[in-house]
Hints:
The protein is an alpha+beta fold. It has five helices and twelve strands. It has helices at 2-9, 13-63, 127-135, 197-203, 205-208; strands at 73-75, 78-80, 91-99, 106-115, 138-139, 146-149, 156-161, 170-175, 182-187, 213-217, 227-231, 240-243. The strands form three sheets. Strands 3, 4, 5, 6, 8 and 9 form a six-stranded antiparallel β-sheet that branches.
Amino acid sequence: MDTAKRRQAGYTIVELSLFLGITALLFTIAIFATGNTIRNTRFTDSGRTLEAYVQKQYDNIINGVNPRTNQLTCANSIVSSGTQNPGTSNCLLVGKLLLFQVGSYVVTTYDIVATDPGINVDFSKTDEQLIAQDYKPQVVTTANVLPYSISWQAPVTGIKRTSDGVAANALALIRSPRSQRILSYTYKEGVTPTTGLLLTVVTNFATNSSKTTNYCITSADGFGAPAKLEVGPASNQSAARIIFDANSGDCNGS
């Protein structure tokens, strides 16, 4: 009788230990699950905001947004300082260059300008020929250079142009002076744009134009599968789309 009363009075040490162990395990699982949820939410935001930023560049080019000040002039595709007001010079803002770097969460955006060749233009040429032969675009590295930081510092972990496996980290978006459609050129650049390289790229448009390129990012802490920003040949913002749970081989260009 006394033994039964003692058992009803409380828990044994074994029972308490078991209770505390289960509680601690459940608490750990809850913390881990919450951390995963936060991590996934942040990474989704990283991918979506990067997608929106690239799509915005298409919209700005289509809508003719011109951030150029009067400190920029063009002459024979040579960009220099000047005092010509926008709209009064032969300098045309024709596009944007987005420069990605593996290992960095910063995408740097540059203006692309061209010199208006005047009335002596053969509009029977293709858009690619007009851009390369008559307008001769060039990247502006001295003004309006804008860095964009991917949300939550998600770094670029790989780049691959799907047609030939080149790690084409430069994405040039150029509006055709004839059809107004946007042509995309992907190629390999250094940390900063090389003077004159864009003209070589647009001249070799068969290799560099309208090629799908993948830009992979991963979470800042390295957990989880990467996501890839896929930029295709479309001439509007639909060209850029983010795809989650990408394969590592999608962006292992060289």
